[in-house]
Amino acid sequence: MTPLDPARIKRDFPILERTVRDGKPLVYLDSAATSQKPRSVLDAERAYYETCNAAVHRGAHQLAEEATEAYESARAAIAGFISAAPSEVVYTKNATEALNLAAYAFSNATALHGIVGNPRQDPRFVLNSGDNIVVSEMEHHANLVPWQEACAKTGAQLRWLPVSDDGRLDLASLDTVIDERTKAVSIVHQSNLLGTINPVETVMARAHQVGALGVVDACQSIPHMPVRIRELGADLVAWSGHKMLGPTGIGFLWGTPEVLDAMPPFLTGGSMIEIVEMERSTYAKAPQKFEAGTQMVAQTIGMRAAVEYLSALGMDAIAAHEHELTGYALDRLDALDGVTVIGPQDNVNRGSAISFTVDGLHPHDVGQVLDSRGVAVRVGHHCAWPTCRRFGVPATTRLSTYIYNDRSDIDAAVSGILAAQEFFGVS
Amino acid sequence: MDLNGLYQDIILDHYKHPRGKAALDAPLASAHHVNPTCGDEVTVDVAADAEGRLILGYQGQGCSISQASASVMSELLEGASVEESVKVREAFVAMMHSQGNVEPDEDVIGDGVAFVGVAKYPARVKCALLPWMALQDAQIKAGLMAPKEETR
């Protein structure tokens, strides 16, 4: 395993050369929101448009063949990155759409169920009165609101696993929250707000014990650590491309072939069909069943370049680099008066997203002072408002690192926090 | 970037020493507004005295900009007539939408002029407007609006 060399990696990212706020070098510590993109990803998208842009899976001309080949070989590369088969990976617009696809499988199957003339729906997706769906108290809104909607449409009950004071999933109630009436369990692998890495295998095992389907939100884990997808023990896994060097406009849903086959479609229209008549239609096999309309072809090509870039560095090396940097950041924050980390303070089963509060200062104001020094962090509730509420804070400041960050970036953030305390007179 | 231009002393002073920050015992109406991007919130209470002059109260939590803005608003509009309150709010809102390219009139918006620097930061404009939008909402609910606003 070759250790990462952030100084060399930075040179592959054109945006990291720019300055902000009157000539300050950019210190980018917001990769949990979206990562920056290396030149190879940008070049791959451009090359696609310059050489073989065409509609995929239709057309008989050479460009269409080449575009289809590029689109499907990108799928194979992305699947290979998580040790999956290509047919198990569905392209979506983003992770939010992937999670909605999963949640809509339940509300759609429930709506379709029992209407004369409709195809039989798999009972695992049909929600009856008294059924429930389980999430956790540390979900991103993307893995909470779609399930709230599914419950609202069907009368199912939404339940959640609580979070402990140290920012871990509290599994003491695992066997009571997930019970015989649970139909779906959807849990985040690594919290975008707390940084916690959850034992999703344990939760998925309990889900399967009661016959529920298991879903994992892996947006913050797949970009940062080696993930062999089947080892998560889930039926469905959602994640996004733009947090792992890829373009915006592309996300993924991995599923076991059996479960993808059993799910009703989500978005319907062109390309996802088998036979269409005026009265009704039948649908293609997954993954095409879930890929209605013209797809984000250029983004899949860029995404392939992104996973190739990450694979060349080595996901083990990336995880080791971030683990070291996270430990350093936690130590430096711990040494600051008035600064409290929200989430695990020990660098165990913990990712590189670190949320914190500064006594007497609102995160917006901390972020503004950091921004004035060229340091880009995220402030707010990070689309995990109930998690903030759980910890009694309206919002946090969050720094998050990636392959191009090093200790000097953490030092810049710490200097900025001290400057904010001084500026507002709370030091 | 000029931090002192954004966070003028008037803003920091109102943030650290908020004026009029308390709920009303018997409001005619209240409005609770949140900024969904950051979770900042403010609740504005309105009532009127015998002459129809505004009595204001507010509570809230949030960044220096939103909380100082509430304090400035409270100080400016406590005891103001409905017509004055509309005039001041419209002037403040216009300034916040100016991208910082206007000379605000201190005679109209008083300490509110300190927020002209905030108008240059699109992400913070909402912070400054939060209490003013809540007040507008509360006034509409309470029927304490100038006739032309009621019909909008």
Question: What report would you give on this structure?
Answer:
The complex is a heterodimer of chains A (427) and B (152). Chain A has 427 residues and is of the alpha/beta class. Chain A contains 13 helices and 17 strands. Helix content of chain A is 37%, strand content 16%. Chain B has a three-stranded antiparallel sheet with strand order 1-2-3. The longest helix of chain B has 21 residues, at 122-142. Chain B is built from seven helices and three strands. The radius of gyration of chain B is 14 Å and the shape is globular. In chain B, β2 and β3 (54-61) form a beta hairpin. Chain B is α+β, with helices and mostly antiparallel strands. Chain B has one domain (3-143): Sufe protein. Chain: A, CATH 3.90.1010. Chain A binds chain B through residues 21-22, 24, 362-365, 368-369, 371-372, 379-381, 385, 388, 394-395, 423-425, and chain B through 1, 3, 6-7, 12, 16, 37-41, 61-65, 67, 121, 124, 127.
Low-confidence stretches of chain B: none
The overall pLDDT average of chain B reads 92
Alpha plus pi helix count of chain B: 7
Measured as a percent range, the helix fraction of chain A is: 25-40%
User: What is the oligomer described by this structure?
Assistant: heterodimer
